[in-house]
Amino acid sequence: QEKLVESGGGLVQPGGSLRLSCVASGFAFGGFAMTWHRQAPGKERELVARITSGGGGTKAYADAVKGRFTISRDNAKSTAYLQMNSLKPEDTAVYYCRAQRTKVSMSGVGEDDYWGRGTQVTVSS
Prior knowledge:
It is a single chain. The chain is built from no helices and eleven strands. The chain is mainly β. Strands 2, 4, 5, 6, 9, 10 and 11 form a seven-stranded mixed sheet that branches. A four-stranded antiparallel sheet has the order 1-3-8-7, with no helix packed on it. Strand 7 (69-74) and strand 8 form a beta hairpin.
């Protein structure tokens, strides 16, 4: 069964760092693009960072985290990471990872799309 499990969240002071991990199982991790999303209380879920499948040569970040967060992946460990530095109180949210892959066949185009259950990040003094 396909599964994503996030870990590494917690309470950190402003200016601190955390490294989130997302361990995948039950599917071919290397063939999937990975994204990190977050959802703060009372707000919609937003995309934070994206990394392409395979070697992860292309990465993209939301403006709010650019220069502070770094997304990476280790296909041998079926794990995606989100290194978060210079954390701010407005980074407080539940962080989710997502795996996506577009499938093309003679019957049409579809998508494999899996979500983790999230890990809480709280930035507060």
